């Protein structure tokens, strides 16, 4: 009852004033929904633009213009006792000249530049791997050089004057001649995944970067996962509640928001400067990314441990379990799905980091995949950075293709996190 004993008049729910208020609230609800839908539409639109742009630019890198070369190796003048040092360049030149007939010296130079400069060595490696090819005719698939690959994919404007394009009229004529014979094909570019980096776009691949990223993430996981869980268990279950532990918690939360380049500078000063660890090695990269991922894993683990109902703790302690038995037999297994989900998301974030890897030198030019964590390597983000900085036209498509591959790995890792969460998550 209001002060003074006066009775409040009853609410007229069907009055014009109440109808106006209801209409205003409903309108506010609809506006909120519209704002949310517009925000989602913006996000999806930008994502579609990103994927569409990358796909439009990068799909060309998933095919490679190849020329079929037929060579009678039984008639070739080769030293079979030393195939590695044989004159494969001469063998290759005679074979491809047979397809076009007589050419002047300058035309021959233009013609041979239509094929990758490593063509003789590619043929040599195939013959060494299969010496039976020496006993007869063999057919080899040789990548065409980057300018001719661009021509085959319709990216060269042949209407421009000859001095304004990378392919001259004679090369166009010879290419058309080879194409008319059916010698030019565009199969799926497996070299993009099987080859390491190269200065020639037609031979460059992601094998070294994918291998380097694997070793790097392995080191990051081996360090950050047990250390992060141990730190979270101590802070959540054993640490006394005082100013010192409060300070530690605040700093862990702050470290999760520190820019990744700061961790790169830390790794550069400590791991390379003080400890003298090898530059460009996945070991150092993994340690730097572990430092960056640790705060995320600690925060996620603490949240997962807290989400387990206290009744489980009390029941375990009530039947005589010690604290460490209660943690390792009950609390940690029950919270592990959430911990794994957070860890995978943290590793996915680490997979896409570029700045800390650049600072420790993982942008070196490496032509073979690393065999271990101490060998010089690169990673997918830094490989993209290297290709994006290359002047050759062929690296434009390869840069977009590499970004699509990186997004594919991130998508798979996030899908794993969602699967683990849906498969093992328990609702209390």
Automatic annotation (TrEMBL):
PANTHER family noted in UniProt: PHOSPHATE TRANSPORT SYSTEM PERMEASE PROTEIN PSTA, PHOSPHATE TRANSPORT SYSTEM PERMEASE PROTEIN PSTA-RELATED
ABC transmembrane type-1 domain ranges (all copies): 210-417
Family assignment from sequence similarity: Belongs to the binding-protein-dependent transport system permease family. CysTW subfamily.
Name of this protein: Phosphate transport system permease protein PstA
GO molecular function, one term: phosphate transmembrane transporter activity
InterPro entries xrefs: DUF3333 (IPR024573), MetI-like (IPR000515), MetI-like_sf (IPR035906), Phosphate_PstA (IPR005672)
GO aspect biological process, one term: phosphate ion transmembrane transport
Gene Ontology CC: plasma membrane
Keywords: Cell membrane, Membrane, Transmembrane, Transmembrane helix, Transport
Residues spanning the membrane: 34-56, 214-235, 255-277, 283-305, 326-348, 401-420
Superkingdom classification of source: Bacteria
Species this chain originates from: Mesorhizobium sp. WSM2240
Transport in keyword set: yes
Subcellular location: Cell inner membrane; Cell membrane
Gene3D superfamilies linked to this entry: MetI-like (1.10.3720.10)
NCBIfam families: 3a0107s02c
A Pfam family recorded for this sequence: BPD_transp_1
Membrane topology recorded in Swiss-Prot or TrEMBL: Multi-pass membrane protein
């Amino acid at each position: 009852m209001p002060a003074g004993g006066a009775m409040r008049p009853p609410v007229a729910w069907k009055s014009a004033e109440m109808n106006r208020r209801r209409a205003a609230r409903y309108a506010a609800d609809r506006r909120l929904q519209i704002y949310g839908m517009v925000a989602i539409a913006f996000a999806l639109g930008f994502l579609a633009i990103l994927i569409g742009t990358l796909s439009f630019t990068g799909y060309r890198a998933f095919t490679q213009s190849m020329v079929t070369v037929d060579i009678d190796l039984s008639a070739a003048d080769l030293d079979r006792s030393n195939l590695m040092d044989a004159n494969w360049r001469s063998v290759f030149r005679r074979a491809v000249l047979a397809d076009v007939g007589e050419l002047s010296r300058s035309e021959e130079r233009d013609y041979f530049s239509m094929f990758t400069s490593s063509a003789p060595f590619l043929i040599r490696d195939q013959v060494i791997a299969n010496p039976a090819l020496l006993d007869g005719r063999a057919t080899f698939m040789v990548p065409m050089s980057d300018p001719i690959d661009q021509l085959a994919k319709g990216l060269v404007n042949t209407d421009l004057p000859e001095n304004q394009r990378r392919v001259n009229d004679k090369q166009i004529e010879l290419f058309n001649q080879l194409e008319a014979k059916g010698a030019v094909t565009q199969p799926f570019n497996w070299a993009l995944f099987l080859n390491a980096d190269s200065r020639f776009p037609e031979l460059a691949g992601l094998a070294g970067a994918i291998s380097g990223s694997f070793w790097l993430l392995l080191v990051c996981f081996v360090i950050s996962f047990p250390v992060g869980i141990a730190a979270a268990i101590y802070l959540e279950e054993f640490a006394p509640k005082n100013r010192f532990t409060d300070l530690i918690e605040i700093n862990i939360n702050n470290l999760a928001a520190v820019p990744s380049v700061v961790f790169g500078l830390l790794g550069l000063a400590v791991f390379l400067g003080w400890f003298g660890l090898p530059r460009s090695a996945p070991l150092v990269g993994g340690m730097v990314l572990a430092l960056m991922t640790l705060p995320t894993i600690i925060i996620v683990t603490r949240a997962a441990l807290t989400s387990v109902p206290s009744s489980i703790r009390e029941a375990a302690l009530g039947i005589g379990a010690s604290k460490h038995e209660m943690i390792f037999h009950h609390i940690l297994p029950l919270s592990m799905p959430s911990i794994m989900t957070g860890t995978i998301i943290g590793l996915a974030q680490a997979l896409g980091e570029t700045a800390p890897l650049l600072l420790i030198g993982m942008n070196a030019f490496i032509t073979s995949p690393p065999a271990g964590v101490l060998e010089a390597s690169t990673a997918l983000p830094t490989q993209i950075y290297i290709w994006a900085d290359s002047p050759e036209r062929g690296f434009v498509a390869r840069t977009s293709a590499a970004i699509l591959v990186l997004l594919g790995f991130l998508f798979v890792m996030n899908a794993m996190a969602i699967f683990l969460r849906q498969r093992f998550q328990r609702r209390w």
